[in-house]
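Dock zinc ion; give full complex structure.
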Amino acid sequence: MPGRKDIAVKQSIPKEKRYTIDQFNKEFPDDDACLEFIKEQRWPDGIAFCEKCQKETKHHRITGRTAYSCDYCGTHIYPLAGTIFEKTTTSLRLWFYAMYQIGSTRCGISAKQIQRETAVTYKTAWRMFKQIRSLMSDGDLQLEGPTVEMDETYFGGRVRGKGRGPQMENKTPIVGIAERKGRVLAKTSPGQVNAHKLMGMVKEHILPESTVYTDELAAYNYIEKLKSDDGKPLGYQHRRIHHSAKVYVMGDIHTNTVEGFWSLLKRGIGSVYHAVSREYLQSYLDEYCYRYNRKDQGNLIFKSILSEVSAKAK
Ligand SMILES: [Zn+2]
């Protein structure tokens, strides 16, 4: 288990938002403490519905098992059922530690690092991260403006035979939308990015009457003409920056927010995750957005991720 001190906790995090490894070790000293945490999260005060009694009853822990038992009839409940921990044979505390790490980094953390620090195999570490990442999704976020930036970028796909053939072929387009000084969302867009897709995303994710900043891509041409399904104008304002003319900022016309997110993402995915396959790209995007959208929480993001365990239990 973690021997190094505060490895991922940046000193730049204000004290009240810093959750140190010492605090982690104190709050979660062992697997039992982690299980108790999940149980409390799902059933505060230890009260859970007992199928046999057909009512809410108090439950107590059964030693040596991940189960609790009804105080009256002895029927068991399993706090891990339906959660990402349901079938795991890995220590709960290790899971919590991996969540702590993923919530404490800014640029991402690799399964390799967890493998090095703990006793798990690379495969196990990789699977844990995949599950944890599944918790880190803001779903279909609606951005509230009043000013948002929208941009597209391309990920992956080695460029071969420079100067010959369609080099974008193996690349996956990613579309990002960011509120200035606010939240961000990023979606992979299989196939080509076109006006139909982009306008669909505007309608789905951006509040009507917001001002939308983009580059000069022709596919954005229709933003101001967009209408609701029953034909009412949605009132979007559109401002664009002419990157091809090497203009990047003109007054408040720029897409620096979303581009800042791209560079964070590329720094992270490039250096930490190496090759991310297309299949998993969206979940990595979700991970980065999730952290970005909670950057005012310091590394208490760990607690946010923890709260998703029962929120996203099936
Ligand atoms: Zn009972």
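Observed: The chain has a mean pLDDT of 87.
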